[in-house]
Design goal:
Distance between the termini: 61 Å
Number of helices: 2
Strand order of the largest sheet: 1-2-9-4-7
Helix content: 10-25%
């Protein structure tokens, strides 16, 4: 009988402590203070009295990146490093310009779901489901279409049109992370590489 009472008290305590968890932000905003030497999960907050409109503003996403890559894409990323007001808000975005046959090769964002809006052109997009099926889910999208890549799944985009393509991406993290599959495979020891 005493063991049952102790067990019930333990379950009640665990249940109540689970209800006490704060899942949302504790303040209206937490503008990143890039000068702070303290690095918690995210960035320290700037003094709210020093926050200004420019902390929540980024200009220039209408201009293609001037970086040239061998795979035919140029990316402009807007995350907490470029837009301090994103700190703790759980979102970031990017613009990708695709040359003819340009490809954003298979990669993973371990901490974010990605939503792509095609502004111009045609892309073959897709992702691979997890084990045991490892199924390819893909299609061609056109101007105005939206496609979602679930968090942590390998995905890609390739320009299959006869002109440049432009996409805007939204990511469900201020720091989504990026693992390029080819780059990751190259870092593995020979004994575990695919043959």
């Amino acid at each position: 009988m005493a063991n049952n009472i102790i067990l019930m008290c333990l379950i009640f305590t665990l249940f109540c402590s689970g209800l006490a968890v704060e899942v949302g932000p504790l303040q209206d905003f937490c503008v990143a203070d890039s000068t702070s030497m303290v690095m918690p999960s995210g960035l320290m907050c700037k003094n709210p009295l020093q926050v200004e409109a420019n902390d929540f503003y980024y200009g220039g996403l209408n201009i293609p990146s001037n970086k040239t890559t061998p795979i035919g894409i140029n990316m402009t990323l807007v995350n907490v490093d470029q837009l301090p007001g994103l700190n703790t808000l759980g979102i970031s975005m990017a613009r990708i310009d695709y040359a003819l046959d340009g490809i954003n090769p298979p990669h993973i964002h371990p901490r974010a779901t990605e939503m792509l809006v095609l502004i111009e052109g045609s892309l073959h997009v897709g992702f691979v489901t997890s084990n045991p099926q490892n199924r390819l889910i893909s299609r061609v999208i056109r101007t105005g279409d939206v496609f979602v890549f679930p968090a942590g799944l390998i995905h890609f985009q390739r320009n299959v049109g006869n002109r440049l393509a432009i996409a805007l991406l939204s990511l469900s993290s201020q720091n989504p992370g990026l693992i390029n599959i080819r780059d990751a495979e190259e870092t593995l020891p020979e004994s575990v590489k695919f043959k």
